[in-house]
Design goal:
With about 775 residues, the chain is an alpha+beta fold. It is built from 29 helices and 21 strands. Strands 1, 2, 3, 4, 5 and 6 form a six-stranded mixed sheet that branches. The two termini are about 25 Å apart. It comes from Parasynechococcus marenigrum (strain WH8102).
Length: about 775
């Protein structure tokens, strides 16, 4: 399993067909063969398991941990035999590596067995029922949780990625250990991406950086997080990676000498203080962490002092604080750099004392923690004692707050928060980042929130009904506006009323995706009738009133609703009225369905519904004629707007016929790509000035070069918001000593609006330049 973003992704070569498994696959009886006869390199622990397990492995559901692991490995080996990865290695190498990673972090036998089997349902003919037959329901659920959705058609990669992540998070809510298998799977695939195409490597690396590394961090699995970040960093920013790698390597001997002297000094001082059993060591920081700090603080490498740090492992919590006193007595502490994550742990369970001191002529970071705290920092949820009993921490009431973010994410998607795949993916990415503000409930319970969170965010974190009925807040016993930003240590009390309800104005200041999604959901539910009527008006204005009610009740419109991922025609109209789907999307899919119906009929269609759907009639009493498309001159042919030049109404355009079955592409006449296309493949086309273009928006990519300062992106977005311009994507790239580059994808009505927008942005003080680029 290479990737959750596309069900067709596979890392093995197409020339190696999967073995056909008919009926119930039979396990060979042990000993199958000597470990050396498997013809692949096995981890030593697996070799020993194979040698230790006695003959008679043919029974189903082995209860002995070693027998379970050997059975799972041999089962996977047989099924993957004859399959190869793109690198040329046998496919079984990947499940073995995944199982090895899971064993390294202390996962249970069931989880490691799932690591051996996580690809068999997706890549062979084995069914989940057969997995359960041989290995029990626990292993089956783990394998199903990480198996991508197969046999389902997705309209695009974003939709596939969203649906597969939805499935994974639902499985995590039932058993959080599912994510251990998925993270190990992703880590080994990141280590072995070399045989894939560059475009695919970039996509997988970006998804790893945005979703899987933050997910490992949220669950406290530091060992996975650091390597995932570095591997993604190496692919996405190769030049920066090499530069930092060389800088770290060039100063290595000097740094090790300095750390060695400091470690020896601290060991002596701890011994003098009577702190026995403490272990002091130096540790290098991972390259992505160094680069991130350079970007965040706008500093060069030589200005970052904590490239390496000290770690003190103590036998007890009391010893941690005593060791802190020794460190501060030996070196001068830097004010404002002490953090007590023991008394106030991070939401992912991380505990440690952090301080920074002036060491040998330069600052140095020090972390102090117990052995158990260190295990949790390295292995996260895998270090939880529940795993030793085969349970899942997510189901423990004592862990409820720790996994509250996961519960709310799953609740949201189950309550209809899956209308927009881009919105869902954005929410996941936002919700996986570290929480930075810790506030208290009136009872003294700690709640972690995103930096910049407000009382409304706090209310929705407590419960959706608390947020929906919030009408005020007390912060530290003082009445404060709901827009007030919360700070560490604040005591927050939410005032509620049965008559209070959310306001759309809250969307302007809430900081958490949970709050934003809940507010939108409430608005959609409470204004459902209104949004249905608005959607119906939009559709009726385009299709005409004659026979409109019959169209809404027809089979074609029901199928359009299903294709738009909503349950019914009313849901479709509500989504249209609320703006979750566009009028153009509905019309295009409706016409496609009508064409399919026409093709399936044996007789030529004479139904008025079909004729009117393909050529919309004008409204009674209206002098404005509506055409089927925004482009005239194509006579109903399929076309797409060229992403290289993103043409807009008001600009001179030309159609080009692509080779193969790629349809017609609309370019601006001055587009550079048009010059290379023969004239016999060009079509004269023009914008339909009498169509329903005011209802349409067209994507345009803008590249803005700005002076890098805090808040510049926010200022630009506010300027666009004032002009009622939707921004569908924003990316910022910065470099030390250089102007920042902002890439925005905006949706505009025409060339006039584009010119006005560019002039408005160009007039801003910190904007150096703005240009129009292609839409990728």
């Amino acid at each position: 399993m290479l990737d959750a973003s596309s069900p067709q992704d596979s890392s093995r070569t197409d020339s190696a067909p999967a073995p056909v498994v008919c009926g119930r696959p039979e396990l060979r009886r042990h000993p199958v063969r000597h470990p050396d006869e498997y013809n692949i390199l096995l981890p030593e622990w697996l070799r020993q398991c194979i040698l230790n397990v006695p003959p008679g492995l043919g029974q189903s559901c082995p209860t002995d941990p070693e027998a379970l692991l050997v059975a799972a490995f041999d089962f996977g080996f047989q099924l993957h035999e004859g399959q190869f990865r793109a690198s040329g290695d046998p496919c079984i190498v990947h499940p073995v590596a995944v199982a090895d990673l899971l064993r390294d972090i202390g996962a249970s036998a069931s989880v490691i067995a799932a690591g051996f089997l996580h690809d068999v349902v997706e890549d062979t003919d084995v069914t989940p029922d057969q997995i359960e037959l041989h290995f029990g329901s626990e292993v089956r659920e783990l394998v199903e949780g990480v198996t991508k959705l197969g046999g389902i058609h997705f309209n695009n990669r974003t939709e596939a990625q969203a649906e597969n992540l939805r499935r994974m998070f639902l499985a995590m809510a039932s058993d959080i250990r599912v994510v251990l298998v998925k993270l190990a799977d992703r880590l080994h695939n990141m280590r072995t991406l070399g045989a894939l195409k560059e475009e695919k490597r970039q996509r997988i690396a970006r998804e790893t950086k945005e979703i899987y590394a933050p997910l490992a961090n949220r669950l406290g699995i530091g060992r996975f997080k650091w390597e995932l970040e570095d591997l993604a960093f190496k692919l996405l920013e190769p030049e920066a990676f090499r530069e930092i790698q060389q800088e770290v390597a060039s100063k290595r001997s000097e740094r090790e000498e300095r750390l060695g002297v400091t470690v020896a000094l601290l060991n002596d001082r701890l011994a003098q203080a009577g702190l026995e059993g403490c272990e002091v060591s130096g540790r290098p920081k991972h390259l992505f962490g160094i680069w991130s700090k350079m970007q965040r603080q706008q500093k060069a490498f030589h200005e970052i002092y904590d490239v390496a740090a000290l770690r003190i492992i103590t036998p007890s919590v009391e010893a941690c604080y005593r060791a802190l006193a020794v460190v501060h007595d030996t070196f001068r502490p830097i004010p404002g750099r002490f953090k007590d994550y023991i008394g106030l742990p991070k939401p992912n369970g991380y505990q440690s004392l952090h301080t920074a001191v002036i060491g040998r002529h330069r600052p140095i970071e020090v972390q102090i923690r117990t052995i158990e705290m260190h295990r949790v920092a390295e292995f996260g949820i895998a270090a939880h004692w529940k795993y030793k009993e085969g349970g899942s921490p997510a189901s423990s009431s004592s862990e409820a707050e720790r996994f509250n973010w996961l519960r709310q994410l799953v609740d949201w998607q189950q309550e209809g928060g899956n209308d927009d795949h881009n919105d869902y993916l954005s929410s996941i990415k936002e919700d996986l980042f570290d929480e930075e503000v810790f506030v208290f409930t009136p009872k003294g319970d700690v709640v972690g929130l995103r930096k910049g969170a407000t009382p409304v965010d706090f209310a929705y974190r407590i419960h959706s009904e608390v947020g929906n009925h919030c009408h005020g807040a007390r912060i530290n016993d003082r009445l404060c506006p709901l827009t007030t930003a919360l700070h560490n240590g604040d005591f927050v009390q939410i005032l509620t009323s049965n008559t209070a309800h959310p306001s759309l104005d809250w969307l302007n200041f809430v900081a958490t995706p949970t709050a934003r999604n809940r507010i939108r959901q409430w608005y959609k539910r409470s204004h459902r009738d209104e949004t249905i009527e608005r959607g119906k008006d939009l559709l009726e204005r385009e299709l005409g009133r004659d026979g409109f009610e019959a169209l809404l009740k027809g089979e074609a419109m029901t199928r359009v609703a299903q294709r738009c991922n909503v349950g019914s025609t009313d849901d479709l109209l509500a989504s249209l009225g609320f703006g979750a789907v566009t009028l153009q999307q509905v019309l295009n899919r409706f016409r496609e369905e009508i064409r399919l119906i026409a093709e399936q009929d044996s007789a030529p269609p004479s139904n008025e519904e079909v004729a009117r759907a393909l050529v919309p009639s004008k409204e009674p009493g209206s002098d404005q004629r509506h055409s089927e498309d925004a482009i005239l001159g194509l006579e109903g042919l399929d076309y797409r707007l060229g992403g290289c030049c993103s043409p807009l109404p008001g600009e001179a355009i030309v159609g080009t016929v692509a080779l193969g079955n790629h349809g017609i592409t609309i370019h601006r006449q001055e587009c550079a790509n048009v010059e290379s296309i023969p004239k016999d493949r060009r079509l004269p086309v023009r914008w339909n000035v009498h169509g329903a273009q005011p209802l349409q928006r067209f994507p345009v990519q803008l590249r803005i070069e700005v002076i890098d300062r805090v808040g510049i992106l926010k200022d630009i977005l506010m300027r666009l918001s004032d002009g009622a311009i939707n921004v569908s994507d924003a990316q910022v790239k910065t470099a030390v000593g250089r102007p920042a580059r902002i890439d925005l994808r905006v949706e505009l009505r025409g060339s006039d609006q584009l010119n006005r927008t560019m002039d408005q942005i160009r007039s801003m003080a910190d904007v150096i330049g703005i240009a129009r680029t292609g839409v990728s």
